[in-house]
Design a protein that fits this description.
The structure is a homodimer.
Chain A (H helix, E strand, L loop, with lengths): L1 E5 L4 H12 L4 E5 L7 H6 L7 E4 L3 E4 L1 H11 L10 H36 L6 H24 L10 H15 L9 H11 L5 H4 L18
Parallel strand pairs in A: 1-2
Antiparallel strand pairs in A: 1-3, 3-4
Helix pairs in contact in A: 1-3, 1-6, 4-5, 4-6, 5-7
């Protein structure tokens, strides 16, 4: 069975778990703590970043964007990347948005302040950074709400990697109860559809010891 | 003719100029100053980032990784992305390295300190940030030197997008004379090969007003 080196609350890792779930590829999940320098992980991926996919047949593939494109290349009957070049570009633009902009402005600073600092050094979170990250999140959620109101899915009429990438990031915010869903009705409908897919179930049972999720986190009706 | 909104010393913009050069796609270059908020650019790309490709037939495609993948999708006789899934993953891993890690640790802080601060506010560069960026660059160049010593090109026996991405970033450092090439003999041979390709020529004649390039920047024998 393929191994995925991941961290449960890392959005990039969640993207690959969701994609493998959609394609019914079973994964042996190995948790890595992103604040520790792990020599074995560095030997697999010199960039030292998660997720890392390790498979006897295919070798080692590192990085969410690289693994997700690679899975689309190898999975027969794949359906998460459209056929047409222009539509593929729109899916990739949104993945770029979440893996790039959203990560830098929201997911990474929030995870760092709340989780990494606490486990790494016990240092308190900076309320200024938390406030900035949450303010950024509102702007991004407004954009997701707008996109979700245009089509059935974020990049068009069909579900794509863009939805999985966005949902992976948003699910981490939702774990911490950061989202006032009443403000984003279209995004809420979109997220409900995703949450009720079998691929999402394993993510909804993730529990960080000492940091339980918000009460509605695993509810399909929230 | 297609338009590329770019900034001459932005490595991500250079990647697309190189790729279009390899495929002999002519571009009408429109310079955008990355430190100004340009409403027209934001209308084209809500992420507000360069490069942005604009074409009458194809519409608007934004972001270096998205444009480069899209060009590979539409160009017949493309040769910058290998056929096999595993080899494609290696090319994408290296693009991820340069567009992600190298950008955050080297290209972005150095450009910000040297160019953006100067033109935006006239503020002096922080010598501490410059030192850190240059120290990071040494580590990355050591890795490029090692990769270049393994095969003819960074991702294998054939030239690929990985070479263009790496060269785009490294060419910006070289503009400022930041690289002691004697320390990286394999990387130097690799960079000489790239520099002598016709696609590279336009980059070698870029000159920033008030900030001329290092004396060897445009020499093919350096």
């Amino acid at each position: 069975m393929a191994i995925l080196h991941h961290y449960p609350l890392a959005a990039s890792s969640r993207l690959i778990r969701l994609q493998c779930g959609e394609y019914k590829l079973e994964l042996d999940l190995v948790t890595q703590l992103p604040w520790l320098r792990d020599e074995k992980l560095l030997a697999l991926n010199p960039a030292g970043e998660l997720p890392v996919f390790e498979d006897e047949t295919y070798g080692v593939i590192s990085g969410a964007r690289v693994i997700s494109e690679w899975l689309e290349d190898i999975v027969e009957d794949n359906f998460l990347m459209p056929e047409k070049a222009g539509e593929r570009a729109e899916v990739r633009r949104l993945i770029d948005w979440f893996e790039g902009k959203f990560t830098l402005e929201v997911t990474r600073p929030l995870l760092r302040e709340r989780v990494i600092k606490r486990f790494q050094s016990g240092e308190a979170a900076s309320s200024q950074i938390l406030r900035a990250g949450l303010a950024n999140a509102q702007i991004h959620l407004g954009y997701v709400d707008w996109l979700a109101g245009q089509y059935s899915w974020l990049a068009g009429p069909d579900i794509s990697l863009a939805d999985l990438s966005a949902a992976a990031h948003i699910s981490v915010l939702d774990y911490f109860g950061d989202i006032d869903w009443r403000r984003y009705p279209e995004a809420k409908l979109w997220y409900m559809k995703l949450k009720s897919r079998p691929s999402f179930r394993p993510l909804l049972s993730d529990i960080l010891v000492g940091m339980p999720p918000a009460s509605h986190y695993s509810n399909l009706d929230f």
